[in-house]
Design goal:
Radius of gyration: 18 Å
Structural class: mainly beta
Strand content: over 45%
Helix content: 10-25%
Order of helices and strands: HHEEEEEEEE
Strand order of the largest sheet: 1-2-3-4-5-6-7-8
Length: 180
């Protein structure tokens, strides 16, 4: 799946769920100091920085992801937890070892706001090319304008290998997001 296809999917999802953003005075007062649940879409690019010894057989390459945040969850004041879904593209193959595919995951993202900046965690699991996998990480979301954000992310990835066993890496990345 190419980056072009991911961008097209992001545009389609944005157009499906976009809202006018207009609220009457009562709604603005009601949510003035609280998190307003919404959809978000984030394009992620990351790179493995620390690899498990069982990952040393593979190349270190850039990984890509498309994450969709949903309004399904709860918010109490500046604390929130929402359900997320993600497509995760990776290719760490070498001439000897094949390790590439698309991860499809679902999980939760709890976090809280400090002013306009949010600190959040990601915990998700799903299906990868050789079986199951799990990702846990943290991020700092910095707003850029009304609906866009830049997210600095660190993630721990644990995935199954062909032939059994698990491998993993800790990566860092950057995500560009849009809230609608």
């Amino acid at each position: 799946m190419s980056l072009r296809l991911i961008l097209i999917l992001l545009a389609l999802v944005g157009s499906l769920f976009s809202q006018s953003g207009e609220q009457d005075e009562f709604d603005e007062d009601e949510y003035e100091n609280e998190v307003i649940p919404n959809f978000s879409a984030n394009l992620y690019i990351g790179y493995p920085l620390i690899k498990a010894s069982s990952f040393e057989y593979y190349n270190s390459n850039v990984v890509f992801g498309l994450s969709i945040g949903t309004p399904f969850g709860f918010a109490i004041g500046s604390f929130f937890t929402n359900v997320i879904g993600e497509l995760f593209l990776y290719d760490f193959s070498t001439s000897t070892y094949d390790f590439k595919g698309v991860g499809v995951q679902a999980g939760i993202s709890p976090g809280f706001f400090i002013g306009d900046v949010s600190l959040s965690a990601t915990m998700s699991g799903g299906i990868f090319h050789a079986g199951t996998g799990f990702i846990a990480g943290g991020s700092v979301d910095i707003p850029v304008g009304e609906s866009f954000e830049v997210r600095l992310t660190a993630r721990n990835n644990i995935v199954q290998k062909d032939g059994g066993g698990f491998t993993g890496w800790i990566g860092a990345g950057l995500s560009l997001g849009y809230e609608f």
